[in-house]
Amino acid sequence: MLLLLILAVSLNVSFAEQVQHAYAQQDAEALQSLLRRADSRADSLLSRYRLYPLTEDASLLDNRPKQLDDGSAREHALLSGLWSYRAGEASIFSAVSYGRRSANVLETAKKLDPDAPYVLLIEGQSLLFRPAIAGRDADAAADRFDRLAHMVEHTPSIGITTTEAQVWEWLALREAGHAEQASTLHKTLLSKSPPPLYRQFLDDPPEV
To answer: How far does Cα 93 stand from its chain's mean position?
Structure first.
């Protein structure tokens, strides 16, 4: 793991790309090392956002601000994602409050840049996983992920891959009832031998 991190730095791979690689390989140890190395708020938020699903370590969600007085659309989107994680592991009473907080921060991100890659990613996830009463919309989620997949195809430095976007798009299409489109995309993704995390996602997707 350490050798891979040293190699990444020597090859001038962006911090976000290193985080994406460790996440896709399900390498929590590498992500923890990257979190310790994070020298900006944006990198810390990104590391926590990627590390929590692998570890479910609630301490990663501690001391998160309710909102940011400044910051980019990407930072606001990542903070929204962290509050969404908090809502997912909270009691039903706290979950409502945390979910509202996540939604408010995401709205700020969208006002700053509705087409920013992390805004599209996290808005799509929100549309897919929020309760129906709160506006769940799998079709809209699939649209966000499709737009994201086309956007990131030639921009690996941001730390989102086309495979990640398309895996989420597949899940959204399936949940929206577009069985034929979902099946075609599923076969295409498997033919590309995706990294372990995305292969697991395709074999055993999360409950929506």
So the answer is: 25
